[in-house]
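Lab manual, section 2.4: Encoding a predicted structure.

Procedure: take the sequence of the chain (635 residues), apply the prediction step described in section 2.3, and record the output as structure tokens. A sample record is shown.
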Amino acid sequence: MVLIDGMEISGQELNNYPLAIPPLDSLAEFRVQTSNYSAEFGGNSGAVINVASKRGSNEFHATLFEFLRNDALDARNFFSATVDPLKRNQFGFVASGPVFLPKLYNGKNRLFWMFAYEGTRRRQAVTSTTLVPTLKERAGDFSGLPVTIVDPITKIPFPGNVIPANRINPVGAALANLYPVPNNTDPSRNYIGHPRGVSDNDALAARIDYQLGARDAIWGRFTKNAPYDRGVGQALSPAFPGFDQEQSDNNLQFAIGDVHTFSPTIFNELNIGFVRFRRERHSLDAFKRNWIEELGIKGLSPIPFTWAAPSMTPTGYSEIGYSSNNAVFRWVTNAAQIVDNFSFVRGAHTVKAGLTIQFKRMTTIQWGQPDGTYTFSGQFSAPVPVVTTSRFHALADLLLGYPSSYTVQTTPFSPHLSYTDMGYYIQDDWKLTRSLTANVGLRWEYFGRPVERDNRIASFDLATGQQVFPGQNGYPRSLVDPYYKNFAPRIGLAWHATDRIALRAGYGIFYTPDVINSYRQLAFQNPFGAVSNLVVRPADPQNPLPVFTVDDPLAQATRLITNNRNGMQRNLRDGQVQQWNLTLQYLLTKDTLFEAAYHGSKSSHLMSALNYNETNPFPPQPPDFARIFPYPTAG
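Recorded output:
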């Protein structure tokens, strides 16, 4: 968890990864607490990074910086004739001072400002090698190769091992020509690619501090972080240019705070903040080029936001097109936060109590493969009885237009989830004696279970083998029961036994909720999105016949399998981690310190994903062989 001026900047989609990251030079100090921290901090069982931003002062200060990294001293990749291009610039400035308007206002000792900007620009290429079809092979000419290409329907070899021009499917030929032409003489890797990636980021932060009398210090801060990336993303093959993904973020944080001093020993700190995270990912061809219409593929009408080249993978070749691993989506999350900490000192006690409340909302629209994903195994153009196939058979299947499988998502998943998290604590740092201090605290936390605005989520009942929906059979709207028993005691002791010996010990319980990704899977299934998946499973695997064509993949709609089911345990408990430690320090000399430490932890109720529909490892054997699943109708 990352806190800036006491406000969380983590995002719900990315495993609580910090998103609204300010420029580095706008930070004054930070503290990393890895374990056994006080009851003030929660919502996480891992480290807490607490950052304080810079504030202005009575003097004007400014810093300007530029950092350059390039390929001037880089070595050449073994497979490349030249050094891979690299240029990275990181630049920015920070300025601060009092608010001063000549003849109008002088903010010395009262009103201060700080503004910082940091930009990053990176252009980098990486060499990658792969295998692509030759021009001869793309024309259907497999003569001279140690394979036999047969007619998928009659199973008779084509004369001369050449597919007649009138048998080549125009869409299949167009897909084959997505591959670039060979540019290397090595027959095992006849193409060397240098796809170039772009990575930019603009981050800025502004802060105002106002001293309102002797008792109140008011501040406000704004942060914006806008990374942009263009490249192969998570593509299965990084070699081919032209099919990149484009991903852009717009992360914002607003925060205001007031520190009110009631007396020298009593004060209160109130912070209110808002974090917004927006991320889009799509093909470079989005809104520009409708590949489905251009190629002539029937039955699909993707919206401009999802336009991309279909993904295609013939066996033996690398994936080409917009990768099936690069989903198309728009994520938006909003989180409003209230944090209040009240402190007072009385005698040997320093007591602190407070609360954190977060109202979170997440909107998603996401497609897996909106333009379709084809595979070609080569099973149809291989001689019967089919035992093995080669990459040439796979390419022949492509040219003839007979896929082995096809997947497309025509309707997106679009959940609108919301929930509330709360945490309350009290902490007492008690100086028992001059040499012994006890830190005792208790925190209570509640992690809300997300509900969907239109109840478009479902879980799976293992007992009945059926989907369950919000409000059905006594299920709550979130499909997961709330849990109110997250009590987290924290205890610490520090004892200075002598001038040379110090002993420290601590114990605490910490809770870690599951990130919202798991809950979002309840909406990422049928019937909330239309995913079509067709796999050819021939009645006779040694004499397979085509079922559908590359130009009309949805013609056999009745054969589509779309029964994947996701679910969550109804009585889910939040993850719990117990931590304890013991540290001994001994000052050997004024310059030498000996330290011995022990740290232990125990985790319970951690989230895990299980497949409850795995096939029976000991199914009936021939002649009654069958794959046996606990839930045969589910995916």
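Check your result against the sample. The radius of gyration is 31 Å.
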